[in-house]
Amino acid sequence: MAVLGAGLILAAVPAASAADGSPVLNDFILKWQNDPKVNCKEGGGTTYEMNVCGGRDYQKTYRTLAALYNKLYAAYDADNKKALQDSQIAWERYMTAECDYETFLSRDGSMRSTNVTFCKLSRVTERIARLKAQEACEEGDMTCNHP
Description:
The chain is mainly alpha-helical. The chain contains 3 helices and 2 strands.
């Protein structure tokens, strides 16, 4: 993902590398090219169709995550921005490691990319829920990081 300013995620452009200080590691989903010929409403029966349909869902969900991250980032002071960036980097590493672990048995198979995509989709959905909880914090609630 590209970074705006000191760490905002811009979900509409290709991903930046971890070396440039981006709070989000290089997630393939934002560079992924959709195949508009695949009809996901009919179930996507082949591995290729499952990859396309899963990729659509994952890309859409990841962009939701990026928008929420940007909203929180914009509301924070410098210290909270750094904490959010550090958290995002650690979370991206966790997501990658966890999905590598969960999909280990498919590592040499044709379903590997499908399994990883759906694993990451699940983790991104969880991350969105956690960031939404931060966004909804009441001022003075010391159990969360209110902007």
